[in-house]
Design a protein that fits this description.
Blueprint: E1 2-8, E2 21-26, H1 29-39, H2 44-47, E3 58-62, E4 65-66, E5 82-87
Parallel strand pairs: 1-5
Antiparallel strand pairs: 1-2, 3-4, 3-5
């Protein structure tokens, strides 16, 4: 298990008491998120729905790659990796 930095972007920081990042022990994205939620329980319902599935409006990156294009929550992480949690951006006029 390696130490991974989880960076919280946008409103996710507010639900973590203003923290912009946290270091957690993790082997994959799922365990990184579990470690983050253990530290900041108010993030749980912001990241997952009532069935335990990731919410669609949450974008998660392993380093610079979006997890949906990798191996999802099973995407392996190594010591020193960075996980970014970014709220989806939508709306506006063209």
């Amino acid at each position: 298990m390696g130490k991974v930095t989880v960076t919280l972007h946008g409103a996710f920081s507010e639900f973590a008491g203003g923290a912009r990042s946290a270091t957690v022990e993790a082997t994959d994205i799922a365990s990184a998120l579990a470690g983050l939620v253990a530290r900041y329980p108010s993030l749980a319902e912001r990241l997952r729905d009532e069935h335990g599935r990731m919410r669609e409006h949450v974008n998660i990156f392993a380093n610079e790659e979006e997890m949906r294009y990798l191996d999802g929550e099973r995407t392996a992480l190594r010591d020193g990796d960075i996980v970014h949690i970014v709220p989806a951006v939508s709306g506006g006029e063209v």
